[in-house]
Amino acid sequence: MKKLLFLLTAVLVISAAQAQLNPVSWKFTSKKLSDKVYEIHMTAVMDNGWHLYSQTQPADAISIPTKFSFTGNPLVKLEGAVKEVGKMEKFHDASVGASANQYSKTVNFVQKITLKAAAKTNISGTVTYQTCDDKQCLPPKKVPFKVNIG
Questions:
Q1: What's the CATH number where 132 sits?
Q2: Which of 12, 46, 127, 148 is a plausible cystine mate for 50, CB 3.0–4.6 Å?
Q3: Does some domain include residue 70?
């Protein structure tokens, strides 16, 4: 009985630790705006107490900004830069002399695209981001994505 209880406790502790290692979940979708024009929505949802960083950071930032890389597709034209939709928090830690532009709970990154031809295709790439809470920062993580269009 003691062994079973120990095993059960170990499984719960390991599960909790693994959940802590991935405090951000991503969802990738497309939204048709008009003929051949779409928005790609890359939405991050953070666990309570965690945040990730904006694509643009202050000069004194030590955090790693979120970055999107898109795989080339001859049928797709990217229109402008990835926009951020969410409540940006401007954070400053006087003890280390660093600032950060960050998001908590959720942020939606939006890339507008135009199809060069009326065809079904996809857009793919990766998002690289760093997430922290008030005690620790996890190493940067790279997440691949692929979104169907058309």
A1: 2.60.40
A2: 46
A3: yes
The verdict on residue 111 lying in a domain is yes
Domain carrying residue 90: 23-149
Q: Rounded to two decimals, what is the model's pTM?
A: 0.84
Written as tens digits, the pLDDT of the chain (150 aa) is: 444 444 344 333 444 444 458 999 999 999 999 999 999 999 999 999 999 999 999 999 999 999 999 999 999 999 999 999 999 999 998 888 899 999 999 999 999 999 999 899 999 999 999 999 989 999 999 999 999 998
Three-class SS state of 3: helix
Q: Which long-range contacts (CB under 8 A, 24 or more apart) does 84-87 make?
A: 84/54, 84/55, 84/108, 84/109, 84/110, 85/109, 85/110
Is 6 a domain residue?
no
Return the structure tokens found at 102. 């960050």
Q: Do residues 123 and 76 make contact, with C-beta atoms less than 8 angstroms apart?
A: yes
Q: What gap in Å lies between CA 28 and CA 44, rounded to an integer?
A: 9
Cα dist from 73 to 20, 117, 126, 149, whole Å = 35, 12, 14, 12
- How many domains are contained in the chain? 1
